[in-house]
Amino acid sequence: MSEFKRLHVSALMEANWEAPDWQQLETTKVGEWLLERHSMTERLKACCETLTVEVIGLHDVDKTSLSDSERALLGDGACLVREVVLSGDDCPWLCARTLVPMSTLTEQEKDIADLGAVPLGQRVFNQANARRDAIEIASLVVDGQELLARRSRLWVNDKPMLVSELFLPHAPIYQEEG
């Protein structure tokens, strides 16, 4: 998995994030995925029998490791980094990298550091006050293939997290409408 992680997580970290053209994307199938404001976990689950999560990285980073845009969205503090691959029916669909400020991992949200194979979206969107904002998109070339990605900030109990998601080649976002 290390080569996979090196390619895909690195691509997410180097992405040139841009504000989406909402008007153009809202009426497209791809746009429905990229602009999803609720749980990506639930959206993926609807496309398969079994959705699984594999944790490929879990570590802390200090604030100097964050980019300017990450600090602008999260604040200027250390974060927990959680890197996972979500697979639908054993086919990798999504590589995600989540930055969780240490200040978010308090009180009710302490458990986020220990989710393991539980999808983050399943945990976050079980809260009535969960929301998503600051959606940005990118087009990345990974191993010669152009792939779509998005980055968004999740809020739970008014505490932020930043999720970057890379849609892998067999993800439902690329499937023909039928």
UniProtKB/TrEMBL annotation:
MF annotations from Gene Ontology: chorismate lyase activity
Domain of life: Bacteria
Top class in the EC scheme: lyase
Pfam family, one: Chor_lyase
Keywords: Cytoplasm, Lyase, Pyruvate, Ubiquinone biosynthesis
EC number: 4.1.3.40
Catalytic activity: chorismate = 4-hydroxybenzoate + pyruvate
Residue sites binding substrate per the record: M40, R82, L120, E165
Annotated compartments: Cytoplasm
Stored Gene3D superfamilies: Chorismate lyase-like
Pathway: Cofactor biosynthesis; ubiquinone biosynthesis
Keyword match Zinc: no
Main subcellular localisation: cytoplasm
Known function: Removes the pyruvyl group from chorismate, with concomitant aromatization of the ring, to provide 4-hydroxybenzoate (4HB) for the ubiquinone pathway.
Family, as annotated: Belongs to the UbiC family.
Name the UniProt record assigns to this protein: Probable chorismate pyruvate-lyase
Organism: Enterovibrio qingdaonensis
Name of the encoding gene: ubiC
